[in-house]
Design goal:
Elements: H1 2-8, E1 22-32, E2 35-46, E3 49-56, E4 59-66, E5 71-76, E6 81-86, H2 87-95, E7 98-116, E8 119-133, E9 141-154, H3 159-171, H4 179-184, H5 186-202, E10 204-216, H6 220-228, E11 231-242, E12 257-261
Helix pairs in contact: 3-5
Length: about 260
């Protein structure tokens, strides 16, 4: 279940018209669905590429998103090999299990503000719901709902680059979590992707996201989901930096064995 937390801890950045690479330092606290404890993450964005490094215990889990090449690389600090996913093919397969057309999403301003990491953040209420087939099984239909407050620092440094990356990724139907977990929970993966897209449209960096994930279903699914319970996750941006990032950060380390996945 570590990869669920690692795959969910992802980038949040947005605003100035100046092009600049972006680095975010974040802390995520998760609870439920066999996930607990805190994780530190660093997210780097350069053009249409993003890298996330999430440290859980003594292991760093890395994901590299190359939107233009339609490739996702997943690896960790314990093995010198990386899984390579063709996201065009994976996205098409995942789409068979998720009814994206019926998705409901809203991000409404609350009028509240609070200070986070030295910045004034505006409050929003977020809710995203998505119908999907659990594990791709059409007989196991469920509804995934993400809800909670989001605090966005508008016009924050790096915002334009964040928005540009997420728009390019959204246009190609990308998800932002480990494909292995997404196969089991396609609705959750697509709902999280929609959440990031909506936040990118606001024009600022989400400095704090308090997300509650609930799943519901009828018939046999109701009993299964009641045993699984829900999950809560709070992600806070500790700092944001803008500055040039090396190209080699956005590819698996030299010498790593590449495993083609599908």
């Amino acid at each position: 279940m570590k990869r669920i937390l690692a795959g969910t801890v992802l980038a949040l950045t947005l605003a100035a018209p100046v092009h600049a690479d972006v680095t975010l330092h974040q802390t995520t606290a998760g609870k439920g669905m066999a996930v607990s404890g805190d994780a530190k993450a660093v997210t780097k964005i350069k053009g249409n590429k993003m890298r996330t490094d999430t440290t859980i215990g003594d292991t760093t889990h890395s994901m590299i998103f190359d939107v233009d090449a339609q490739k996702l690389y997943v690896f960790d600090s314990k093995k010198k090999e990386a899984d390579v996913w063709d996201m065009a093919a994976f996205g098409a397969e995942l789409g068979k299990a998720v009814d994206v057309s019926g998705a409901k999403a809203s991000l409404k301003p609350t009028g509240q503000t609070k200070q986070i990491a030295g910045h004034s953040a505006a409050g929003y209420d977020m809710e995203v719901s998505m119908d999907s087939a659990m594990g791709g099984n059409k007989d196991m239909m469920m509804t995934v709902t993400l809800a909670g407050p989001v605090w966005i620092v508008k016009n924050a440094p790096g915002s334009a680059d964040y928005a540009r990356f997420y728009k390019a990724a959204a246009d190609k139907g990308w998800i932002f979590s480990d494909p292995r977990g997404a196969k089991a929970q396609p609705g959750q993966a697509k709902a999280i992707a929609e959440m990031y897209r909506r936040m990118a449209e606001i024009g600022g960096i989400p400095y704090q996201t308090d997300m509650e994930i609930k799943m519901s279903g009828s018939g046999p699914m109701a009993a299964v989901l009641s045993k699984m319970g829900g999950m809560t996750m709070t992600t806070t941006v500790d700092s944001v930096e803008t500055g040039a990032l090396a190209d080699d950060l956005f590819a698996p380390p030299a010498g790593y064995k590449l495993n083609q996945k599908k």
